[in-house]
Design a protein that fits this description.
By secondary structure, this protein is an all-alpha fold. The protein has twelve helices and no strands. The longest helix has 27 residues, at 185-211.
């Protein structure tokens, strides 16, 4: 029964942190280590439960997604204006997804192994927390997704790929890039959510495929499914709240939280309360 409790807690943690620029993978890794000392739930578990939160994104942005896909497909066969902003957005999401796929495959062993060290996680929480704060402070607030260039789409994708390292944050990386390039907070957040769908869903189902028949899973398929369902339901609530929040508020509270959590994590590791690997 304890496995089910751990899975439920991790599902809640995943939902509460996936869409905020504070790194869901770091939080799942930290809480997992606290609840299962010496038994990291693993990169596979993290990738699978992220399917739940990305399903929440699909549901929340369903109309946008259907419109983008429909217009993109029609434009591909000459039945819609290729200059339509949503057609461009479809291409930009494809281009922006390439870096994380390529880098994820090239550095798969490191991502599932050495890069999951909590020392690295603590460092990334602090360093990228400060970088996100800087980006939010210096970034202009005038650009919208309609005017995004191909180069900016690729930069968004490269920023998203930084999230392969726990502690960086997928939404944090893309929002940081967006703010540096002058996109408004709501626009950067919206694109961050849409851009994450192909990469996260693809990674999750690839992890499911690799885990079939495996006996090395720390948490079984039942608890993992529970965590995924929880992350979906609660994720819908968090998306709604966060998009309203960024319309009028800065990312300052998340920057301070990241720095504080990184420092606390250093202390826990230094005193032996947590094991780094």
């Amino acid at each position: 029964m304890y496995d089910w409790l751990v899975a439920a807690v991790l599902g809640i943690v995943q939902a509460l942190t996936e869409f905020l620029p504070i790194s869901s993978s770091a939080h799942v890794r930290i809480v997992g280590e606290l609840m299962l000392p010496g038994d990291d739930p693993g990169a596979f578990f993290t990738a699978i439960i992220q399917i739940g939160t990305e399903a929440a994104v699909v549901v929340y942005f369903w109309r946008d997604i259907v419109s983008i896909i429909s217009k993109w497909c029609k434009a591909l066969v000459g039945r819609h204006d290729r200059r339509d902003p949503e057609v461009r957005l479809g291409w930009l999401i494809i281009i922006g997804s390439i870096p994380i796929v390529v880098l994820g495959l090239l550095f798969q062993d490191a991502i599932e192994g050495a890069l999951r060290s909590l020392w690295i996680t603590a460092t990334m929480l602090i360093v990228f927390g400060l970088v996100i704060g800087l980006a939010d402070w210096v970034g202009k607030k005038e650009r919208t997704l309609d005017g995004m260039t191909w180069g900016q789409g690729l930069l968004f994708g490269l920023a998203q790929s930084l999230a392969l390292v726990p502690g960086v944050s997928r939404s944090g990386g893309t929002i940081m890039a967006g703010r540096f390039m002058g996109f408004s907070r709501p626009e950067a957040a919206r694109y961050s959510f849409l851009l994450a769908i192909p990469a996260v869903v693809g990674s999750g189902f690839f992890s499911v495929y690799k885990s079939l028949g495996s006996t090395d899973m720390v948490l079984g398929w039942g608890p993992t499914a529970l965590a995924t369902l929880i992350s979906f339901g609660l994720g819908l609530v968090v998306i709604h709240w966060f998009l309203k929040y960024v319309q009028t508020r800065s990312f300052g509270i998340f920057v301070w939280y990241r720095v504080a959590l990184g420092i606390v994590l250093y202390i826990l590791l230094g005193t032996g309360v947590l094991a780094a690997v």
